[in-house]
Design a protein that fits this description.
By secondary structure, this protein is of the alpha/beta class. The protein has a single domain, classed as Rossmann fold (3-Layer(aba) Sandwich), CATH 3.40.50. The protein has 9 helices and 14 strands. The relative contact order is 0.17.
Length: 256
């Protein structure tokens, strides 16, 4: 039987980018593992979060997540660092300029073994999100909550998460995130950030069949045709509702 880490005080920020999500997770009182393959962004984050790192509340992992450990080629998009990816087709979209670098790569089970299983796993790793989701399958202990950036494989993402035992789903329109805030912390979510997570994502948890139907009517149909305008894009959030109901929904600290 799968165990869910409902009492963990850890968040994994996979695809830390400029650190806006990490900033929020730290304010919430979580210990954070921020994974980022772009060395320039890692250096900026090390300066931005020097205090949290010194206090042991944040660990920055300079690596790409992949199917196996070792080294891999990573393409840094020089025009839009959000698009950087192991997948050159993803990183170099719209004929944008990229720089190929060699980075260390790690697997999700390796990260869990070294740092622990998080309460919340944020996945935004441009083109290889499916690799992370596939590695959740068969693990004895899973995060209580997971989010993943939607793409044309959204139906497969939800199917994989359901097979892992997640039974509550929400869709968060990322174009609305700058309009959202966390009043308890006085935190306004920045454009491009992931926004709230878990029980704090607006709306009620929906069963798998219900969210698939909603997705097919809102985001893209079963034939793969996009239904929503390009100004809208989504994150798929999920949880295990039984432990979500009994576990902690918020954690605060005194380092804000």
């Amino acid at each position: 039987m799968t165990d869910f880490a409902f009492d963990s005080n850890l968040v994994f920020d996979l695809g830390m980018n400029n650190g806006d999500d990490t900033d929020y997770y730290l304010k919430r009182g979580f210990r954070v593992i921020g994974l980022e393959a772009n060395p320039g962004l890692c250096e900026k984050a090390a300066l931005r979060f020097a205090t949290a790192i010194a206090e042991g509340r944040l660990t920055i992992v300079h690596a790409a997540i992949w199917e196996s450990s070792g080294e891999t080629v990573f393409y840094v998009n020089l025009e839009n660092d959000h698009w950087s990816s192991i997948d050159i087709g993803w990183a170099g979209r719209n004929d944008s300029n990229c720089q190929a670098i060699t980075v260390r790569c790690v697997t999700l089970p390796e990260l869990f073994a070294e740092y622990g299983v998080p309460f919340y796993l944020k996945i935004d790793v441009e083109g290889v999100d499916h690799v992370v989701l596939d590695q959740l399958r068969g693990l004895a202990k899973l995060p209580q909550c997971v989010s993943v950036e939607d793409c044309r494989f959204g139906f497969q993402y939800m199917e994989t998460l359901s097979a892992c035992g997640y039974d509550g789903f929400k869709l968060l329109d990322q174009s609305t995130v700058p309009d959202l805030s966390d009043p308890a912390l006085g935190h306004q979510f920045q454009p491009g950030s992931s926004g709230p997570f878990g029980n704090d994502v607006p709306g009620s948890w929906a069963a798998y069949d219900s969210v698939v139907a909603l997705y097919a009517q809102t985001v893209r149909d079963f034939a793969g045709n996009r239904l929503a305008p390009r100004t809208q894009w989504w994150d798929i959030h999920c949880t295990h509702t039984e432990t979500s109901a009994s576990g902690p929904s918020r954690k605060e600290n005194h380092h804000v």
